[in-house]
Amino acid sequence: MTSQLNGSVLKAFKILDLFAAGKIELTAQETADALGINMITAHRFLHTLVHAGALRVTSRGVFRLGYMFADLGHRVMRDGNLAGLLQPILDQLARDTGEACMATEFDRDMAVCIAKALPDRPLYVDIRIGSKLDAFCTAHGKLWLAHMIPADQD
Fold first, then answer.
1. Dihedral angle, C-alpha 32, 34, 35, 40, nearest 10 °
2. Torsion over CA of 72, 76, 127 and 49, rounded to 10 degrees?
3. Which pLDDT does position 125 carry in this prediction?
4. Residues 47 and 85 placed together within one structural domain of the fold
5. Are both 98 and 128 inside the same structural domain?
6. What is the model's pTM?
7. Fewer CB atoms < 10 Å away: N or C end of the chain?
8. Distance from C-alpha of 42 to C-alpha of 48, rounded to nearest angstrom
9. By mean pLDDT, which of 23-27, 41-45, 106-110 is the weakest?
10. 88 and 143 both lie in a single domain
11. How confident is the model at residue 116 (pLDDT cuts 50, 70, 90)?
12. In the predicted model, what is the mean pLDDT of the chain?
């Protein structure tokens, strides 16, 4: 069974993923170069994303993520009961062990941090909630992979 995907939607998300790589601002030229598309197409995508609220223009030709993502992130965290249920447990575990603790959910091939608790000491590993971690090289990811049927592990 072949799933039908919309290439334009996938391309729009590739543009948004450019921000996930640590970029705060993006121009049409950077977008065109990164995705291998022409400038007209890059402009069209960027302005469509501005119209949708996913991006905002900060100065002429410079784009940043729009505030809709803060709202969407808040909704995901609010509606995700699991994170709320786990938070007191993670807080206690961090107090008991003096280590940072986190909980993840598996999304496609990544472990996604949904809750965390930090220790009361100056040096610790801090993973941002919402961070995606490669499953094959992290403890959380390996736990998820170990409990999958072999056909789904690829």
1. 0
2. -20
3. 83
4. no
5. yes
6. 0.56
7. N
8. 10
9. 106-110
10. yes
11. very high
12. 86
